[in-house]
Amino acid sequence: MGSYVLLTFLCFFCCKIGASKDSCLRHGHPVTPNRTLISAGGNFALGFFRPGNSSSSFLGIWYNSINNTVIWVANRESPLPPQDSQAHFTVGDDGNLRLLDGEKNVIWSTNISGGGGNSSVALLLDTGELVVKQGESIVWESFNNGDSDTLMPGMRLKVNKKTGKRNVIRCWSSSDDPRPGKFSWGMDPKGSPQLLIWKEDVPYSRSNLFQDGFTYSRYLPQLGYSAYYSFATKNDEEYFSYGYADTSFQPRAILTPGGNLQLLLRQKGIRDNQWLILWQVPSTKCDLYSHCGSFGVCEQDGSHSVCSCLKGFRPKSLKDWDKGKYDAGCERSIALGCGEGEEDGFMRLALMKWPDHSSSLGNMTFKECQLECSKNCSCTAFAYANITPDSAVNCINWFGDLVDLTHNYSAGLNDFGQDLYVRVHASELSNTPSVQSV
Fold first, then answer.
1. Structural domain of residue 139, as residue ranges?
2. In a shared domain, residues 134 and 183
3. End position of a domain, from candidates 111, 146, 181
4. Are the CB atoms for 262 and 252 separated by under 8 Å?
5. What phi and psi, each to the nearest 5 degrees, are found at residue 151?
6. Taking the CA atoms of the chain, what radius of gyration do you get in angstroms?
7. Which of 1, 121, 359, 396 has its CA 20 to 30 A from that of 194?
8. How far is Cα 269 from Cα 246, in angstroms, rounded to an integer?
9. Comparing 192 with 54, which gets the higher pLDDT?
10. In this structure, are 241 and 153 located in the same domain?
């Protein structure tokens, strides 16, 4: 963070004295179809472009050495016609960045409130971010206010747990059309920290649950360096971010028009070097949200995704199940006793992707966590774990149907599963050695 602040300060200083004028945007010196901004270190460019075979024009930011790899677009929903050669991007009299067409209609604006006038300065940083400064304060940042299909290192996916306000990554409609497509990716506004891909606002793929303050580092032997990602909380805001140790490589996370989240990597400074896909989700049917329905569990068997019902459960529709249609999920073979003279117990399942719709009860003992679930008839499962050795042990409860279960979970970011204790009738626990009963 310190180096980022220093870089920003130095670049603004250069902007004032004119030594780095091509990275700065000031009142009266607009970006036009014949002029682009180049970040101080030459990593990124900002200007007008036409994606793929499109005839429409957009204002965006791209890798300077790879001009067909765009990371941010201002006017995603308002393309400029190809014949408009008078469009320009400028600092307005009120201090806002404005994209104007040839008729001087405002196509896009930063909508900064509070004035600042034409003394506002915009700067394209070497991180790929466009920022606006008024006086000594940064008042707008493209990483926090843009609508992109790309998550860059240091960029945050955020959600406010009180208001539900969040920023998301939205895919392009196609490789030739930056307009927002069907898929989005971001932090879940409900429950424990987790990431979801939505298809038209319906869950499409989901990560495992994480804990606040969780940072996970992974050494990549094929590349010879480590990458990290983290979840953190500040006030009421939770956010996810990632980074990397070796600056000779350039990573980016992109949500494709088809709904795949990909982590891509290339070696910096080599124009013909292709982007390498390190991983992507969904990559199998087990990565699709609730592929096996409620109380159904998905397991990857070679190239096939196999659905089965949890022990103590059976398919709701055996006819559909035999046809490979699992949407209806599973139901209990024996109803829970729920304190009516019959005992219930908990079946331990290892290496599980925890279900969706969790409720965190905080730090307590295992017995206390088990008791909290057992005394509530609506509680169908609990978990007791710390994701990292230095994080607090957390008790998590689930109520109602258990959805989006995967066994031997190793997809996406974390490569690990956790123990899950599922509530069943005590008679279902016979011949099941790894059980904690009530």
1. 1-146
2. no
3. 146
4. no
5. -105, 115
6. 25
7. 1
8. 14
9. 54
10. yes
